[in-house]
Amino acid sequence: MTTGAGPKKIGTLGATAIGVSAMLGAGVFSAFAPAAQAAGGWLLLSLAIALVVAASNAASTAQLARQHPGAGGVYLYGREQLGEWPGFLAGWGFVIGKTASVAAMAITAAAYLVPEPFARPVALAVLVAVTAAGMLGITRTAAVATVIGSVVIAGLIGVLIVAQVSPPLFGSSNEDDSVFSALGVLQGAGILFFAFAGYARVATLSEEVRDPRRTVPRAMLLSFVIVSSLLAVLGWALLNTLGPGRLPLTPAPIAALVETQPVAVAAVSVLAAVSSIGALSAVLAGSSRTAMAMGRRRDLPAALAQQHPLTAVPRAAVLAVALGAALLICVGDIREVIGFSSAGVLVYYLIANLSALTQAREHRSVPRGVSVLGAVGCVTLVVTLPPLALVSALAVFLVGVVARLALRARRG
């Protein structure tokens, strides 16, 4: 029997802090340059589109979380609302998308810490270190995540102030005709969608907050307002300071804003590394646990469901995700890796929106049009992602489908 008491219950401010810290991971430090490569001077329009799609997805997911509070996220919701195959596609999309996110976060940490020739080895070293910690059961707590998020916000505000006082050494490059390209803007939106990674954490707080029907929507709204405002100001500053010509070519754009101040550059490098590594740890844990849940239901090999008797860590699942991320670090650049990540996660949220559309009236808390907008947005952004990222993601989805069919056939 539960007493209803306990320290796990948090209010709107606590839930908002967790949401903001979860959303401010590696994306804010890495997504602007590849997005600008696609969208050019229309970067802020891409950001607005990504925000609308992300917000619609989060609303649908929050609605589902209140009806299905168990672990598993959209993998569970898809199975319950649409059937086993949609649930599998959601879970597989999450696993492969977040595996790519792990790679992108390691690449981002390395990009801010060392020069380009050393980036891949350092990214692999970061991945190995975090994976080793994950094997021991060391994960980022909500309190630590909140502290990191607060430090990141303060640091980024400081960067904006320094950038206005001391313009970059090399100035801006405005060699961009800014001709509107719908495809370029949508590609940029798909890439910037990665910058909102983590907002699912807000939508799955139902069991951790007081009065979830009020607290979760409020925390979600506040998180989006804070993060989207910060991203919009950063996007404007990057375009205005570096220019649409230089921004796409800058591997560490936030540091470039303060390149005339060595101390500030060092601080940004540490900030980006800490933020990326913290997010990497959380994403590695989340994606491996989804793989574990899929292994339990035989949607993936059963070995992935095995947990260490002392730490309860699914070591095979952690190792599988880490190996996939290592492969992406070795063969992909940041634009393609982020695009691959967005493809997997957008399919995951497509299933969320479709699942939300099937909920009965008593379980609905947002208009059906929000879920329709989210579903259309997910499809639109997926099909307009960079071709190599899209083709690679489709190939990996096909591998997952074939593997599941083989597993089912083996069981007879």
From TrEMBL:
UniProt keywords, alphabetically: Cell membrane, Membrane, Transmembrane, Transmembrane helix
Molecular-function GO terms, alphabetical: transmembrane transporter activity
Membrane topology: Multi-pass membrane protein
Coiled coil: none
UniProt-listed InterPro entries: AA/rel_permease1, APC_superfamily
GO (cellular component) term, any one: plasma membrane
Spans traversing the lipid bilayer: 12-33, 39-59, 89-112, 118-136, 143-166, 178-200, 221-243, 263-287, 340-358, 389-407
Pfam families attached to this UniProt entry: AA_permease_2 (PF13520)
Subcellular location(s) per record: Cell membrane
Protein name per UniProt: APC family permease
Organism classification: Bacteria, Bacillati, Actinomycetota, Actinomycetes, Micrococcales
